[in-house]
Specification:
The protein is of the alpha+beta class. The protein contains 26 helices and 17 strands. It has 3 domains: about 160 residues, Four Helix Bundle (Hemerythrin (Met), subunit A); about 150 residues, Ubiquitin-like (UB roll), CATH 3.10.20; about 400 residues, Creatine Kinase, Chain A, domain 2, CATH 3.30.590. The protein is about 50% helix and about 10% strand. It binds adenosine-5'-diphosphate and magnesium ion.
Length: about 750
């Protein structure tokens, strides 16, 4: 077998080696920040309140401020006034175009740019920007997923300015954050329902805060999302069609060494990576995104960044924007960022830990223990209500993080399981037990009440440092917030934030009603609150779990506790449509029935399409790359065996060629199996594709198509282990994970 044959048959192998050579020659690419101090340029490309004050008339400034505070929209006339100042700022910053920037039900954001130019009177071109185009636009949105809400013949959707999220400039484009709704008013994005859920939470939480502090008039939910990601060198990335098309490796034998030694976690950040991080952080600062933390994650070539928490709507926008910035900046450094939840089998996947809490206009974090019994009763109230919400809306909260890509990560031995439980830590668990024991049904004596309050009053402020960390919990209390860890790294956190905030809002409303009822029966306020809290603790006990969430015992225990653990993605998603979920999402007015059903259609279709894409990519790679490589290697072995016979004759043949013959058989078996399984998978797809109903189709894709992905991969990975490294067509795990 001559090398020439190898080369002609293995153009991909050449690409692989070329990529490896390229990577070894890479140098770190340093870029200069506009200033050493971030505070000098933070928000440079954002039309924030400071700039508004400078560029807007006093009148316009006050109008916008009021609109932001009260969550209202602007009239055309008011918008026109704002547009004048905004245009002046944007032109000064070099913008030539503007766009309404929105979050359709895909995984990314959408934008359609329009130039500022208009034809002037005498055929001149002038820069123009009006209030009309600032507040509303009507993109032809027929190609965005809507779940059948918008017929293609009525393709118009419109976008409307979300005043609460500031306008920003990327490159030369002025970006206006907007909601996206259909012509008939149904939401087609994440932002519109998120804003509704947040406003529900605001109202419900303020009502409850009124028991404790009359000065509270506004409650915002806060979010800080830790974003995990992988980096892969661009040259290697291009040599892996599965990464390019499916964003995860569909084949690849585990590297002999990967994360066993935990030597990557918190290790020193490689220089080339550091240059990339500094560069994207700088861009993020200019966009007003307060990224603060960076570190190596557990898996090789896996990293994390986390911003300072912000109001949820803004934090969601910023996270989407940050992912976009990272993808763009990575290319400058010859990297590709992988946000997929499980780009590599056998090692850790990536999540997006959603740190979430609520804060009042009086500067109080409602999930932070206070300094005195009164504020601690408030803390306890909100803590227990969140637990109760996670208990009652368990299936729904779980559904909000379920999707095709996250399904490869959840339940693995590195990520939260797909069972949603709450971790509190020993101190708080004990305190809740105390409350249950000490609060009595009968009217409490003053002494009992004092004792209880004293107990609560002692919750230490240093709880933050005290909380024993349980890294295995999907929903953990971490001292002054909950950390919702089951959210996938590629997700728009709008999806899970809609559900969490809606569930807590719904719960707080119920709480208020129950407490008021007891007060109406003549009990005092604190006692009424204690009564309801006790009842909630007892009712939501099942959702509390302090142990190892990865353990087998927990799965058995969770089953006994009847906690939701549906294995399938489409079936999990269906929990959005249970009567309980509808009460949280529809009765509250966050979604209409039609919107929610449309959204589910979109999710089912997304699931099917993603599996379909993976199946096609794997099929193509298996047949066009792997099988020929296997045959190639087999042929060279066969020639070798023939030559042995020619040279040595029958006498020593078995001794000399026996092992080779076995290898030939093993390779041949794998090739036959790969071919057969790919054919079977195609047949399974054909059958699934004719199913009309999107849910049924997703189910069949999950049950009858998805399992082939693993089966086929298994044979390919075994083949990789025995085939000649020189002709293997795709970069191997060790190359993808250890070269940078
Ligand atoms: P960890 O130790 O959990 O990895 P990190 O420092 O990586 O923590 O991230 C913690 C995140 O929690 C940050 O984004 C931080 O801003 C956020 N956070 C802190 N307090 C709150 C809060 N009150 N509400 C929401 N998020 C918060
Ligand atoms: Mg972290």
């Amino acid at each position: 077998m001559s090398i020439v044959v190898n080369l002609t048959y293995n153009i991909m192998a050449i690409l692989r080696f070329k990529a490896l050579v390229e990577v070894t020659r890479r140098e770190p690419i340093k870029t200069e920040a506009p200033s050493k101090n971030v505070s000098d340029y933070f928000g440079l490309n954002v039309f924030d309140l400071h700039k508004m004050e400078h560029y807007l008339s006093k009148e316009a400034f006050n109008v916008v401020r009021k609109a932001i505070d009260e969550g209202k929209s602007l009239t055309r006339q008011e918008a026109n006034q704002v547009a004048i100042g905004l245009k002046a700022w944007a032109l000064e910053r070099g913008a030539t175009h503007f766009t309404h920037w929105f979050h359709p039900l895909t995984d990314g954001t959408a934008e359609k740019h329009d130039g500022f130019i208009e034809m002037g009177d005498k055929g001149h071109v002038v820069e123009s920007f009006s209030g009309e185009v600032l507040v509303q636009s009507e993109p032809d949105a027929s190609s965005f997923p809507s779940g059948g809400i918008r017929n293609t013949f009525e393709a118009r959707g419109y976008t409307a300015w979300d005043v609460s999220s500031p306008v920003f400039i990327v490159g030369t484009t002025l970006c206006i954050p907007t909601i996206f709704v259909s012509y008939t008013g149904e939401a087609l994005d994440y932002k519109a329902p998120l804003l509704k859920a947040l406003s529900k939470l605001d109202k419900a939480a303020v009502d409850v805060c009124q028991y404790f502090d009359k000065d509270v008039t506004k409650v915002i939910a806060t979010l800080g999302c830790e974003q995990e990601y992988f980096l892969v060198d661009e040259a290697l990335y291009y040599a892996r069609p599965d990464l390019v098309l499916a964003e995860r490796t569909l084949m690849g034998h585990q590297s002999a060494k990967d994360q066993q030694l935990s030597d990557h976690y918190f290790g020193s950040i490689p220089e080339r990576v550091m240059c990339f991080i500094e560069d994207f952080e700088c861009e993020a600062y200019k966009l007003g995104i307060p990224v603060k933390t960076r570190h190596n994650e557990v898996a090789p070539n896996q990293f994390e960044c986390a911003p300072i928490h912000e109001e949820v709507n803004l934090a969601v926008d910023h996270n989407q924007l940050l992912m976009d910035v990272m993808k763009r900046i990575a290319r400058r450094h010859n990297f590709r960022v992988l946000f997929h939840e499980k780009p590599f089998a056998g090692i850790n996947g990536s999540g997006k830990h959603n740190n979430w809490s609520m804060a009042t206009n009086t500067g109080v974090n409602l999930l932070s223990p206070g300094k005195n019994p009164k504020s601690n009763l408030q803390f306890l109230t909100f803590l227990v209500n969140v637990i109760k919400a996670v208990h009652d809306s368990n299936e729904l909260i779980r559904a909000s993080v379920m999707n095709e890509s996250n399904s490869y990560r959840l339940g693995g031995h590195e990520a939260p399981p797909a069972i949603i439980s709450v971790f509190l830590g020993t101190y708080l668990s004990k305190m809740l037990d105390d409350v249950v024991r000490k609060v009595t049904e009968a009217k409490m004596t003053p002494a009992q009440k004092t004792e209880l309050k004293l107990g609560i009053g002692k919750i230490p402020e240093i709880l933050l440092d005290n909380t024993d960390r349980n890294r295995t919990s999907p929903f953990a209390f971490t001292g002054n917030r909950f950390e919702f860890r089951a959210v996938g790294s590629s997700a728009n956190c709008g999806g899970s934030m809609i559900v969490l905030n809606a569930a807590v809002a719904h719960q707080l409303e119920k709480f208020k009603k129950e407490v008021d009822k007891i007060i109406a029966r003549g009990r005092n306020k604190d006692e009424a609150i204690f009564q309801v809290i006790k009842k909630y603790i007892l009712e939501s006990k099942n959702v509390l779990f302090e142990g190892d969430n990865y353990s087998k015992e927990w799965h058995a225990e969770a089953e006994k506790r009847k906690l939701c653990n549906i294995a399938g993605v489409p079936e999990s998603l269906k929990c959005y449509l249970t009567p309980e979920s509808k009460e949280v999402l529809i009765a509250s007015g966050i979604f209409s029935e039609k919107e929610l059903e449309g959204r589910m259609e979109v999710e089912f279709e997304k699931f099917t399409k993603k599996v379909q894409i993976e199946a096609r990519v794997l099929g193509d790679l298996a047949i066009n790359h792997i099988v020929p490589t296997g045959i190639n290697y087999m042929t060279s072995l066969l020639e070798n065996v023939k030559a042995i016979k020619e040279v040595f004759g029958e006498k020593d043949f078995e001794r000399l060629a026996g092992a080779r013959k076995e290898l030939i058989i093993t390779i041949s078996d794998h090739i036959s199996m790969i071919k057969k399984l790919v054919n079977d998978m195609i047949e399974a797809r054909k059958k699934a594709n004719v199913i009309e109903n999107s849910f049924d189709k997703a189910i069949v894709y999950e049950k009858d198509v998805k399992p082939y992905l693993d089966e086929i991969r298994n044979h390919i990975d075994k083949l990789e282990l025995i085939a000649d490294n020189e002709i293997w067509p795709l970069p191997k795990y060790r190359e993808l994970l250890f070269t940078r």
